[in-house]
Prior knowledge:
Layout: E1 5-10, H1 20-29, E2 35-40, H2 43-56, H3 60-81, E3 86-88, H4 93-96, E4 104-107, H5 109-116, H6 131-142, E5 146-151, H7 160-165, H8 173-177, E6 185-190
Parallel strand pairs: 1-2, 1-5, 2-4, 3-4, 5-6
Amino acid sequence: MARAWTVVKVGGSLFDLPDLRTRLQAWLAQLDADRVLLVPGGGTTADAIRNLDRVHQLGEEAAHWLAIQTLSVNARFLQVLLPDARLFAEVSESTFAYASGSEMHILDAMPFFVADEQRPDHLPHCWEVTSDSLAVRVAALLGAQELVLLKSVGPSRCTWSAAWHDGLLDHHFADAMRQAPAAMRVRIVNLRNGAP
Length: 196
């Protein structure tokens, strides 16, 4: 029987935490999961693309792919913080079949989402799709048992749908969740103010 995946989106809003390495390591150490795949958020690198789009009217298609490239840069940033983590450019069971449960993985977003374009149900190319929905897509394709969204804020209510209504998740998140496994748990963790 295949070991279940837990997908953890590390929000870009956390990247300016001076103790992010320690905080993230402590949180991951207490995570009860067979296999973990980290999906980096966009943060200020993606915001830079938003600003360029606003100034130069790049268009959502071009801006989408530039923003995806920033996630690949952020994956390498996370790998510097977590040097034992393995960088992967493709999400498939054959790629991860040999991985042990003790290994940490970080998604290289650009090659993954380029490959995902071959699937008819790929995500739309627009600013309504952020790394929240991208993480759902990865979790759905992996058949993950859980998706954890590490953020700088926590929900005032406890369900992802309530968090979406509260504006803590992107506009496409609810649509992306329709493709996720029905049994997949989703939770939001405030890593900035919460205890590791």
